[in-house]
Design brief:
With 192 residues, the protein is of the alpha+beta class. Helices cover 21% and strands 22% of the residues.
């Protein structure tokens, strides 16, 4: 988290009731956005998505091409399927997976120590733009005026929120977040 903010909070990114659901961390991120909306207004918000997620494919690549993802197909029937059937099922699986891939931007990523991030700018709700493809939120989120900052490092179970005392108090008051006060020195809970 950047230093210099008045207050900090940490919230679980994967509440127990959503940990194994298809919606992943989306309910938590939507709650954070609800809290931040009044102080953000209609100013642009910047987001940074780690370049190491498996959802990226390079310009000129076909996300449906063999080798983009490992596809294993298992049949419940005891009869051996024909090669034509195996190829058809694999092609269908590649087509479904390709819908979740995102083309790498034709721009250099933001380079921070030990990590690179592709950036985009949009309205506050664009923070959830990649949710369909990635169950993880952007790692970096901040508004144009830098009045707050949200950090969701890769492989973490928590997000950190920095801002004014009012922003952090609003996060603490929102029961959907189950947030706690923090300092920049706190260590986030990481995945096991």
């Amino acid at each position: 988290m950047p230093l210099g903010y008045e207050a900090y909070a940490v919230a679980p990114l994967w509440p127990d009731e959503h940990a194994h659901s298809d919606c992943g961390c989306l309910p938590v991120m939507e709650a954070v956005l609800d809290v931040l909306a009044p102080v953000t207004g209609d100013q642009p918000v910047h987001c940074g998505m780690w370049d190491g997620w498996g959802c990226w494919y390079s310009r000129g690549e076909d996300p449906r091409a063999p080798g983009m993802a490992a596809i294993n197909v298992v049949w419940a029937e005891t009869a051996e399927p024909s090669q034509e059937e195996i190829d058809r099922v694999r092609a269908d699986a590649r087509e479904r997976l390709a819908a979740d891939y995102v083309q790498r931007p034709d721009a250099a990523p933001l380079a921070l120590p030990e990590r690179y991030y592709y950036l985009w700018t949009g309205p506050l709700r664009s923070v959830t733009a990649f949710h369909r493809e990635q169950h993880d939120p952007p790692s970096l989120i901040w508004p144009e005026d830098r009045s707050w900052f949200v950090g969701a490092p890769i492989y973490t179970n928590e997000i950190a929120i920095a801002g004014t005392a009012e922003v952090v108090d609003a996060c603490l008051a929102d029961l959907r977040l189950n947030a706690r006060r923090a300092t920049p020195d706190d260590t986030l809970d990481t995945e096991d």
